[in-house]
């Protein structure tokens, strides 16, 4: 049986999270008159944010802890004094402003146009439910997708098998006729492979020393080699 259903991750796969997030902080710093070098802040923030998303994925911190702590730890690390009230305000503004920046990875529209008549396309995302659909609307890609599955709607996060099983059920798909495409080896690729799905890794950063034996692409248009 051939592939009929293609499941995409959203952030870091189609939607250029880093670029859009940087622009969001730029807007917030200006609005809040935060006198701190944005580049220095972002350099410290990004690994902290990555660490907290991993903890969130592993159910070790809550959504509200993630949103607060990633900012608190960063401001502490750069020795910038800031109140908890303002941190909460920034956390809320981040979620409010982020979906309005809409940069996508190069080739997103071209590859979705190429795939949409051949397959049924879906999204599986660990991102916050209240912003993911807004991101897709703002970047004009929402109409390409049939089912949109957020981890919050399932109650657990990728790579938990429940997310993938739920996605297959919602989409009316089977393991043997589906494929998962995403940037995270742990959450997207191995999560999918572990329940019998095919998977393709989006290695847009050209990371070396990846030992796993799976398909990998460095740009979205390379998907044409596999689909």
Automatic annotation (TrEMBL):
<dbReference type="InterPro" id="IPR006439">
    <property type="entry name" value="HAD-SF_hydro_IA"/>
</dbReference>
<dbReference type="InterPro" id="IPR036412">
    <property type="entry name" value="HAD-like_sf"/>
</dbReference>
<dbReference type="InterPro" id="IPR052550">
    <property type="entry name" value="Pyrimidine_5'-ntase_YjjG"/>
</dbReference>
<dbReference type="InterPro" id="IPR023198">
    <property type="entry name" value="PGP-like_dom2"/>
</dbReference>
<dbReference type="Pfam" id="PF00702">
    <property type="entry name" value="Hydrolase"/>
</dbReference>
<protein>
    <submittedName>
        <fullName>YjjG family noncanonical pyrimidine nucleotidase</fullName>
    </submittedName>
</protein>
<dbReference type="InterPro" id="IPR023214">
    <property type="entry name" value="HAD_sf"/>
</dbReference>
<dbReference type="InterPro" id="IPR011951">
    <property type="entry name" value="HAD-SF_hydro_IA_YjjG/PynA"/>
</dbReference>
């Amino acid at each position: 049986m051939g592939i009929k259903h293609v499941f995409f991750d959203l952030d870091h796969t189609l939607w250029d999270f880093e670029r859009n997030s940087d622009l969001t902080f730029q807007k917030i710093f200006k609005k809040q008159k935060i006198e701190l070098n944005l580049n220095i802040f972002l350099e410290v923030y990004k690994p902290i944010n990555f660490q907290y998303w991993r903890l969130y994925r592993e159910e070790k911190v809550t959504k509200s802890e993630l949103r607060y702590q990633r900012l608190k730890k960063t401001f502490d690390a750069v020795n910038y004094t800031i109140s908890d009230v303002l941190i909460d305000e920034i956390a809320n503004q981040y979620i409010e402003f982020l979906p309005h920046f809409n940069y996508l990875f190069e080739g997103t529209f071209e590859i979705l146009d190429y795939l949409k008549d051949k397959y049924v396309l879906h999204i599986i995302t660990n991102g916050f439910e209240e912003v993911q659909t807004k991101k897709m609307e703002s970047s004009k890609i929402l109409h390409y997708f049939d089912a949109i599955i957020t981890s919050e709607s399932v109650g657990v996060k990728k790579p938990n098998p429940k997310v993938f099983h739920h996605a297959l059920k919602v989409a009316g798909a089977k393991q043997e006729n589906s494929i998962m495409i995403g940037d995270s080896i742990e959450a997207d690729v191995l999560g999918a492979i572990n329940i019998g799905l095919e998977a393709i890794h989006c290695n847009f950063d050209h990371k070396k020393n990846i030992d796993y034996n799976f398909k990998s692409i460095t740009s979205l248009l390379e998907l044409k080699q596999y689909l």
